């Protein structure tokens, strides 16, 4: 593993604090609005604020992970990827570094949502449930990190922000991160199940309902991760165009 | 070391590289010369595996380019881009070094590229010439056997150019192979053992600087001739081209003696000067030949 590259990426991230701040802002604001509106409600026997907190945490980590890979489009635009092709760095390593960076980037939005949930919305969960929820939401960002890499290769540098923005909004809306799947009409639920966002939701929210991670949902999510990672790798290989 | 066989690369209607054959041996320092759009950068892309040829093949060290690069045998400086603006000079060179298995110490390479004093500066804040030197450091840090440079001194001031080439001299003294594309004829003349002249995607001349100059063995006749008929002059025996310069005419000739006789017989030309050509004239002549064809 090339730790120097990851270290440099983290430095770049810390120098671009705007990106970090925006990644936390949107889920935090949505949580305060939706959570405030649904206080003292229940969804499927679970406190609505806890439910929304988990969903919006996923929204934050998902949007950040997609955006993280999207930065590849900008790097391609400035010819960095051609430069990388002049080094022995292997495609798999590069994608792995980008995915790891995206995973690191999802920590601040997750953290802010959980802190706001506990402090402002009085969400109370057993420690084990907190841990499982956080772990599921964090690792559940993996397929989106891979999806971000794909976006980074497919999108143009000047439109990548809009493309990833549209993508995560659609995923959040149809995958049941903004509107609880339990309250969706049958047809919308069927559509939701086609999105990876739905399955992260199922994974990360399952501890709220039965204190453990749902195995079926974890497997579906793994499938999404592998599939999107393969697409990401093939995009890296195909990418040779001069910037 | 570098073997390019019948390379063809098309971009839509443009054939950027058109059946190019080139072989470069270990230890050679080769200049790739040619006008804008000749296909120099495209050739470099093809031999580095950054673009896939439509026909033909490129091999480095007898391997596909990607394999040679994976073994850390190649360092390259591309014509543009390739820098992360939010890293510092030392960081991006260290990063490049870390991606290569074996690498030279970063401070030494920064010194060699003349940017030791810029080590802690962000790339984004550097001038064009300073960024060019960062690219040079990135090409050197892997300690490569083959260095490929696409217009390495573009944007450098005369002092920096001199420093760049003296650094390159020390590098090649250790037996490295160098291929560089350039528009600076004096650089090709002074630093290359061999000049490959490209035009319209093909190699049109290949040899030492003096051989290339010899290709433009013709001479230029300059004479004062008010109201000259340029078309008639161009049709004179021995003349390739006639240009007007105010009252004067400039005749590019392959046989200056025949041209001179005909010129004197046919016109009232005065103040006649005949000059031989340097590399610059060879460049112009080789470039024009294609435009006429
Ligand atoms: N990606 C591309 N898409 C379309 N045309 C291209 C592309 N890359 C190069 N070309 C065309 O191919 C031809 C050769 O370009 P190339 O960049 O290789 O020339 P060059 O010799 O390096 O020129 P210069 O001296 O200006 O750098 C030009 O006509 C150029 O417009
Ligand atoms: Mg070029």
Automatic annotation (TrEMBL), chain A:
Keyword Lipid biosynthesis on entry: no
Highest taxon of the lineage: Bacteria
Principal location class: membrane
Keywords attached to this entry: Antibiotic resistance, Membrane, Transmembrane, Transmembrane helix
Subcellular location: Membrane
Topology relative to the membrane: Multi-pass membrane protein
ABC-2 type transporter transmembrane domain ranges (all copies): 6-208
Membrane-crossing residue ranges in chain numbering: 20-38, 50-74, 95-121, 127-151, 163-181, 213-233
A matching Pfam family: ABC2_membrane
Name of the protein this chain belongs to: ABC transporter
Native source species: Phytohabitans aurantiacus
Taxonomic lineage of the native organism: Bacteria, Bacillati, Actinomycetota, Actinomycetes, Micromonosporales
Automatic annotation (TrEMBL), chain B:
Top-level lineage group: Bacteria
Gene3D superfamilies (alphabetical): P-loop containing nucleotide triphosphate hydrolases (3.40.50.300)
UniProt membrane topology term: Peripheral membrane protein
Single annotated GO MF: ATP binding
Domain ABC transporter residue range list: 2-225
InterPro entries according to UniProt: AAA+_ATPase, ABC_transporter-like_ATP-bd, ABC_transporter-like_CS, ABC_transporter_ATP-binding, P-loop_NTPase
Protein name as annotated: ABC transporter ATP-binding protein
SUPFAM superfamilies (UniProt xref): P-loop containing nucleoside triphosphate hydrolases
CDD domains: ABC_DR_subfamily_A (cd03230)
Keywords: Antibiotic resistance, ATP-binding, Nucleotide-binding, Transport
Subcellular location: Cell membrane
């Amino acid at each position: 593993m090339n730790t120097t590259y990851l270290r440099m990426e983290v430095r770049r991230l810390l120098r671009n604090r705007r990106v970090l701040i925006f990644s936390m802002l949107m889920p935090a604001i949505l949580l305060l609005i939706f959570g405030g509106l649904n206080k003292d409600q229940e969804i499927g026997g679970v406190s609505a604020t806890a439910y929304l907190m988990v969903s919006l945490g996923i929204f934050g980590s998902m949007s950040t992970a997609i955006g993280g890979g999207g930065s590849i489009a900008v790097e391609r635009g400035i010819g960095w990827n051609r430069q990388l092709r002049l080094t022995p760095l292997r495609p798999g390593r590069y994608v792995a570094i980008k995915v790891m960076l995206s995973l690191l980037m999802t920590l601040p939005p997750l953290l802010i949502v959980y802190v706001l949930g506990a402090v402002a919305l009085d969400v109370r969960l057993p420690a084990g449930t907190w841990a499982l929820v956080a772990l599921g939401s964090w690792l559940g960002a993996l397929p989106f990190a891979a999806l971000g890499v794909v976006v980074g290769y497919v999108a143009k540098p000047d439109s990548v922000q809009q493309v990833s923005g549209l993508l995560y909004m659609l995923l959040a809306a149809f995958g049941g991160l903004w509107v609880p799947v339990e309250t969706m009409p049958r047809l919308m639920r069927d559509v939701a199940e086609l999105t990876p966002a739905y399955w992260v939701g199922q994974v990360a929210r399952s501890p709220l309902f039965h204190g453990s991670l749902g195995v079926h949902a974890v497997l579906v999510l793994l499938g999404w991760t592998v599939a999107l990672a393969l697409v990401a790798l093939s995009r890296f290989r195909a990418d040779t165009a001069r910037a | 070391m570098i073997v390019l066989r019948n390379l063809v690369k098309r971009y839509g209607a443009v054939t950027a590289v058109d059946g190019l054959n080139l072989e470069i041996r270990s230890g050679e320092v080769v200049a790739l010369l040619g006008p804008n759009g000749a296909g120099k950068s495209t050739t470099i892309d093809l031999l580095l595996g950054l673009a896939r040829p439509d026909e033909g093949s490129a091999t480095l060290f007898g391997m596909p380019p990607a394999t040679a690069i994976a073994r850390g045998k190649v360092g390259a400086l591309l014509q543009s881009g390739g820098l992360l603006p939010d890293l510092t000079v030392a960081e991006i060179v260290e990063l490049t070094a870390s991606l290569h298995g074996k690498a030279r110490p970063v401070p030494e390479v920064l010194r060699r590229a003349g940017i030791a004093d810029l080590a802690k500066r962000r790339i984004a804040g550097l001038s064009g010439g300073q960024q060019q030197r960062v690219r040079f450091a990135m090409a050197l840090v892997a300690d490569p056997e083959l260095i490929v440079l696409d217009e390495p001194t573009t944007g450098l001031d005369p002092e920096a150019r001199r420093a760049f080439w003296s650094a390159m001299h020390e590098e090649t003294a250790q037996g490295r192979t160098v291929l560089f594309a350039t528009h600076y004829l004096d650089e090709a003349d002074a630093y290359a053992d061999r000049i490959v002249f490209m035009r319209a995607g093909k190699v049109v001349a290949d040899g030492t600087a003096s051989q290339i100059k010899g290709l433009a063995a013709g001479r230029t006749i300059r004479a004062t001739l008010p109201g000259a008929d340029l078309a008639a002059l161009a049709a004179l025996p021995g003349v390739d081209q006639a240009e007007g310069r105010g009252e004067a005419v400039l005749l590019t000739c392959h046989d200056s003696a025949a041209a001179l006789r005909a010129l004197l017989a046919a016109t009232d030309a005065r103040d006649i000067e005949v000059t031989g050509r340097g590399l610059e004239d060879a460049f112009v002549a080789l470039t024009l030949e294609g435009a006429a064809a």
